[in-house]
Write a structure and sequence with these properties.
7 helices, binds flavin mononucleotide
């Protein structure tokens, strides 16, 4: 049994990547970790050139990645969130799995899960719940392909303004926008996945749920 994990986070060894690696490890299966920034994947052109062949006519790495998804027994998609939804690399990757749909439904029945990193806490009263919207985007892809969505992990990430060097003086800084008028770069600090027990437990659980679903499926 092989579990494919795909991360759309472009940041090297990011919270998203480490959460995904923990979930993959917890499956106890053979796994492969893919970082989308290392690949060249354009969005779907909706040309329907894939209908008869289940293969995209756009000759970039999207073809290779769709082949990997087809061969895998389970899929975990991990993303970070930009402007309140999944990042564009992850979205393009998902669109490029469309060739696997026609006539055969190659992803149908496979266990799947989502890992989503966002900077804005879901319980924020004024700002959009990026984490929930990210999970829904991945969940709904899996639902529409007939996959078995077994669970998700939400990770608290870092707003880029924490690290940019101007977080306390820029009038557009998201530090105060998210955390209130008295917040500073130092008072907010850096979020690490490993320091979030709810997220680390959820990552372990997700891996185990994937393994369990694979056992039941046989
Ligand atoms: C262009 C851009 C837009 C972003 N927009 C949002 C947003 O709307 N909501 C949010 O919660 N986080 C937003 N973020 C913050 C990212 O989600 C954050 O950088 C992420 O948690 C980092 O995760 P990583 O360390 O796993 O890569 C944005 C980041 C970038 C670069």
């Amino acid at each position: 049994m092989k579990v494919l994990g795909v991360s759309g986070s472009p940041i090297p060894n990011s919270n998203t990547d480490r959460a995904l690696k923990m979930a993959l490890e917890a499956t106890g299966c053979e796994t492969e970790f893919i970082k989308l920034i290392d690949y060249n994947v354009a969005p779907c052109r909706a040309c329907l050139g894939c209908v008869d062949t289940n293969r995209c006519v756009n000759k970039d790495d999207g073809v290779i990645l769709a082949e990997k998804a087809k061969e895998a027994d389970a899929l975990i998609i991990a993303c970070y969130t930009t402007y309140s939804t999944i990042d564009s690399r992850t979205k393009a990757f998902i669109e490029r799995l469309y060739p696997l749909r026609h006539l055969h439904g190659f992803m149908a029945g496979k266990p799947g899960g989502a890992i989503v990193t966002s900077a804005i806490p879901d319980k924020h009263e004024m700002l959009p719940p990026a984490g929930n919207m990210g999970v829904d985007a991945i969940r709904f892809y899996m639902m529409e392909e007939g996959m078995n969505f077994v669970g998700y992990v939400k990770v608290s990430g870092n707003v880029p303004c924490i690290k940019c060097g101007y977080g306390d003086e820029c009038k557009m800084s998201a530090v105060k926008m998210i955390f209130g008028p008295n917040a500073t770069v130092d008072s907010v600090g850096i979020n690490r996945f490993e320091g979030q027990p709810v997220a680390t437990n959820a990552a372990m659980e997700l891996g185990k749920e994937i393994a369990q679903a694979l056992r039941i499926k046989g």
